[in-house]
Amino acid sequence: MQDHKDQAAAQDLECQPGPSFCTVLQNITNSCTQHHKVENDMENYVKYKLVGGKLKLKKGVVPHRFACQKQSVEKPERSVVKTLKIAKLTASRCGLRVVFKARGLMPPVFTPLNDDYTINYEVIPAYADYLTKAGIKSVLVGGTTGEHMSLNVADRKKVVDAWVKTAKTTGLHIQVQVGGAPLADVLDLASYCEKEGADSLLTLPELYFRPQNVNELVSYVELVAKAAPNLPVLYYHIPSMSKVEINMPAFVTAATAHIPNFKGIKFTSNDLSEGAQVLRALKDDQEIFLGADTLLAPAALLGIKSSIGTTWNLFPRLAQDILDAVEKNDVAKARALQEKLSLAIEAHTVEGAWVPIMKAGMEIVSGIKVGPPSLPQRPIAEEARKRIEDRLRNLRIIN
């Protein structure tokens, strides 16, 4: 009954009637889609919307919607959540512009693990509070730091749910990285994030059949963007890991022309010359996020003032002080603070791979237990952990 009324309410708000799916279904089922919630009841809905073909009912699904029948029951008021969902749907169908407002420092959060490598969801609320109290306004879930490329889709969704839930009390902007998986899973994750309340998406390129040129990369990102048309979508440029080495200014220009909800990139490269070109190519409602922690000050001097960096988890106030110094044109102070941050990073990097050393550093600096890295990576030795701690004390970063 309630499904029927929600559908009727949505129809009242639509700017124009949507296409019927009944014709498509006539060859595979006797049930009209008026009796099904298509996006939930069909196992291949996302693929159908993107590339066409035949819809397939999930096993065990029975008709449960009766929008084609008249109802005499009085329609109750919609909940705020359902009204907002209908409004988002209406905005998309009427062609309203997707807005992306996240700026400044965005830590890519760690995925906390227990010693047995299961996910420690219980620590996430305290983790979110820690970042919020340090002045952080937005986080990236599922990036390289978050190791989501090593997790299955079900666990990735649960981690997203946990962080979206924290936003209700912290106000954090939740961006989710959905790439690093087979395309069907990437599209599923993108659609899921839009449905469950994430604020924006970031996507890696296809990592096996890699895009070879600008057009192929735009085509890939467009598929992700179409799976979540109401969310801002950004591209994750990290050629050292993805091995996708395509000219980013050309890509940004083409993506902007072809993808309505494309809103920028995470630029994890030391080539600040190319980064500056990307900045010039972006529109006012788009953004470039630097992904190189040791170049925060010089990038800010070039005008790149937003950043997604692992060490913003450990040293958020130091990073913000660097940006503030640049804003005040205090180049000497910005340089000194950048040197301090760079030395703090080097205190870690001599001891191993990026995520294992940074997870150890996070526990040393914040006291938040993020646990070991996900398999196949391994935690660093206790001796290495002690050396990191000693170096940070010598730098007077910790007491």
UniProtKB/TrEMBL annotation:
It is found in: Cytoplasm. Its main location: cytoplasm. It catalyses: aceneuramate = aldehydo-N-acetyl-D-mannosamine + pyruvate. Its EC number is 4.1.3.3. It holds the Pfam family DHDPS. The keyword Disulfide bond does not apply. Pathway: Amino-sugar metabolism; N-acetylneuraminate degradation. Keywords: Carbohydrate metabolism, Cytoplasm, Lyase, Schiff base. GO terms for cellular component: cytoplasm. Coiled coil: none annotated. GO terms for molecular function: N-acetylneuraminate lyase activity. Homotetramer. Belongs to the DapA family. NanA subfamily. This is N-acetylneuraminate lyase.
